[in-house]
Amino acid sequence: MKYVSTRGSMAADGRPQPFLQILLGGLAPDGGLAMPEHYPRVSAGELESWRGLAYPDLAFAIISRFADDIPAADLRRLIGRAYTPGIFCNTGTGRAADITPLKTLEPGLHILELSNGPTLAFKDIAMQLLGNLFEYALARSSSELNILGATSGDTGSAAEYAMRGKRGIRVFMLSPEGKMSPFQTAQMFSLQDANIFNIAVRGVFDECQDMVKAVSNDLDFKSRYRIGTVNSINWARLVAQVVYYFKGYFAATAAGGEEVSFAVPSGNFGNVCAGHVARMMGLPIRRLIVATNENDVLDEFFRTGVYRPRRAAETYSTSSPSMDISKASNFERFVFDLVGRDPAAVSALWREVDAGGAFSLAGSPHWAKVSEFGFASGSSSHAERIATIRRMHGEFGVLVDTHTADGIKVGMEQREAGVPLICLETALPAKFAASIEEAVGFAPPRPPGFEGIEDLPRRFSVMDADAAQIKRYIASHATAAASA
Ligand SMILES: *Cc1c(COP(=O)(O)O)cnc(C)c1O
């Protein structure tokens, strides 16, 4: 399998690139995102033959189609080490070996548990594999990587727990001092691994993000210290997420041919884009229901055809904070397919977006394809998510987190008789205790091992929102590349 850019080319010479070549990279040189040249098709017979596979075997069957430059035995080992019941042990159903167990609320209504990993959010599923893939690729090329990131909560901790103790990798994670939830802060800052560096910045999240950009724009520093990222545009993260759509489908259906719909709490469009890939591979998905919170850029697109990213000042802080995103970085991948994989068309649309503008596909021949691809959408407010949490608890005795509640709220609105609906769980309620208390009047339980994490010793540094300071910090804790 080779990869192209949504805007034309993955490499300076214009040639499509293999998986290992795009694994560590961010944007393509032309500013686009990596996409497979075509989607591997899974026949109905092959699909049924996968039905009984254990999670790691299913993951291998799918991921090996996309990463065919990694020898099969190596890929099996990397996958097998990521998806173990020991790592994904925080399940509410007690079925840790399933990695992503399906919880049935009533006939035809399900929650797919994706938050059983070390940081209690679905990002662990992709990050745990990414950590192993990075370590493998770096060992093969005898090189090292210094990952620099900014987080407001979930991504940073998922990345740190995936990269802790990995050879050749250091993580420098910036977070706004005092702005993460007490649980998130404790989770990150209590890590004692020598390759993990937590940096609390005296400022807000945007300033952390600006520091990352400033370092990435210093090309000399970037190559000298081999600076990399683990952000949501990484193609390997997306591929790892394709697997649980298959797993959820098999768990919710009895035999071949049946269609299911998925409701997906969305921010950067990574999760639901993986669903789109699964559907393009041949998984019988009827609808992919995109759920947003008050930051409804994506819902607006799927209702009207207008994509209008918002400025930071127009982005609301909500009680489902991991979806407080007004520029969906993976959305460009979907639009690439929507416009018939025409890189010139994508480039023209994103010239508008990158200049702070908007575009509309309403009335264009591409617009009809949105429903052909199975997409539907809706949004949820704070009051609606609180009411959904309360209702799920009252009716079915389950506690869901605020993001999952947004997905359930929108999914239920669009539910069709006779079509199983699978709502993706993206985090455990323990991470967002205040909203759960508001909804049901008691604090959410914590999985074993998370009691008292606020009291553990902490390891972190504090600095000003100043790019020069983080550069000095990286330089004193990392070794420069041998070639520098
Ligand atoms: C990241 C995240 C989302 C949004 O997922 P995308 O892939 O960015 O659309 C939703 N819920 C939670 C809890 C998250 O951490």
Secondary structure: elements and pairs:
Layout: E1 2-5, E2 17-18, H1 19-23, E3 34-36, H2 44-49, H3 55-66, H4 72-82, E4 102-106, E5 109-113, H5 123-140, E6 145-150, H6 154-163, E7 169-176, H7 182-189, E8 196-202, H8 205-217, H9 219-224, E9 227-228, H10 235-252, E10 260-265, H11 270-281, E11 285-292, H12 297-304, E12 306-307, H13 331-338, H14 343-354, E13 359-360, H15 369-372, E14 375-379, H16 382-396, H17 402-413, E15 421-425, H18 433-440, E16 461-464, H19 467-477
The structure holds pyridoxal-5'-phosphate (PLP).
Characterise the protein shown here:
The chain has 484 residues and is of the alpha/beta class. It has a domain at 96-120 and 236-440: Rossmann fold (3-Layer(aba) Sandwich). The protein is 41% helix and 15% strand. The chain has helices spanning 19-23, 44-49, 55-66, 72-82, 123-140, 154-163, 182-189, 205-217, 219-224, 235-252, 270-281, 297-304, 331-338, 343-354, 369-372, 382-396, 402-413, 433-440, 467-477, and strands spanning 2-5, 17-18, 34-36, 102-106, 109-113, 145-150, 169-176, 196-202, 227-228, 260-265, 285-292, 306-307, 359-360, 375-379, 421-425, 461-464. It has a 6-stranded mixed β-sheet, sandwiched between helices. The chain has a 5-stranded parallel β-sheet with strand order 9-6-7-8-16, sandwiched between helices. It has a 3-stranded antiparallel β-sheet with strand order 2-1-3. A hairpin with a 2-residue loop joins strand 4 (102-106) and strand 5 (109-113). Bound molecules: pyridoxal-5'-phosphate. Pyridoxal-5'-phosphate is lined by residues 121, 123, 154, 232, 265-271, 322-323, 403, 426-427.
